[in-house]
Q: What sequence folds into this?
């Protein structure tokens, strides 16, 4: 596509539920990054995919967080047993120039 | 890990004023980029500038890698320049960007 697409744009979930966030990168871009941004804060690195290489998972805050990238394209970030502190905007970027999507605003109630 | 410090944290300007935003980093970097996050949350890449000077319209940036800092200059500021400016660095090739906390700029007419 023309840009990085993220879905859903907003997600409200109950504490303890699992959520899946989706990122469609720009076609042909091999690099894909996930970040999260808490209210009024900077961006916190979560995970980085580069082609067929093993992903850099060094930023994932706990084992409740996982991500996969199927066929080198679409990526899904999964948060299990959500907690209130997981509330944030989750941002995806593709390519080395970091073209960002509009993000998914996650609210855990 | 590498530390990124931005200053000032907040900046309030009248339309037409000039400003300088600073980014200090604690170690040598392979990648340095400046981003603008508009009031609606969209992140736009402004410059890829691990060293040297670049200009794009009213914006310019300079990175002095040997002294571990980068500057972003905004001339003749406009209300549309409002938002948060982030500096982000990567210490090595193939690693994800680490973001500073940002400078929040408010330009009033």
A:
């Amino acid at each position: 596509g023309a840009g990085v697409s993220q879905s859903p744009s907003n997600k409200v979930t109950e504490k303890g539920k699992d959520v899946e966030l989706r990122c469609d990168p720009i076609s042909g871009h091999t690099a894909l990054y996930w970040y999260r941004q808490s209210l009024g804060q900077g961006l916190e690195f979560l995970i980085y995919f580069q082609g067929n290489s093993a992903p850099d998972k060094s930023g994932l805050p706990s084992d409740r967080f996982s991500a996969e990238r199927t066929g080198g394209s679409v990526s899904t970030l999964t948060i299990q047993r959500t907690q209130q502190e997981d509330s944030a905007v989750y941002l995806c970027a593709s390519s080395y120039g970091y073209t960002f999507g509009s993000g998914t605003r996650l609210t855990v109630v | 890990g590498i530390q990124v410090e931005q200053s000032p944290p907040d900046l309030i300007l009248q339309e037409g004023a000039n400003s300088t935003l600073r980014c200090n980093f604690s170690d040598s970097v392979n990648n340095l980029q400046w981003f603008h996050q508009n009031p609606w949350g969209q992140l736009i890449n402004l410059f890829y500038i691990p060293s040297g000077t670049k200009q794009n319209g009213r914006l310019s940036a300079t990175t002095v890698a040997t002294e571990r800092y980068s500057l972003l200059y905004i001339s003749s500021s406009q209300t549309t320049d409002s938002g948060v400016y982030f500096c982000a660095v990567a210490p090595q090739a193939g690693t994800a960007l680490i973001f500073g906390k940002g400078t929040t700029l408010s330009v009033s007419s």
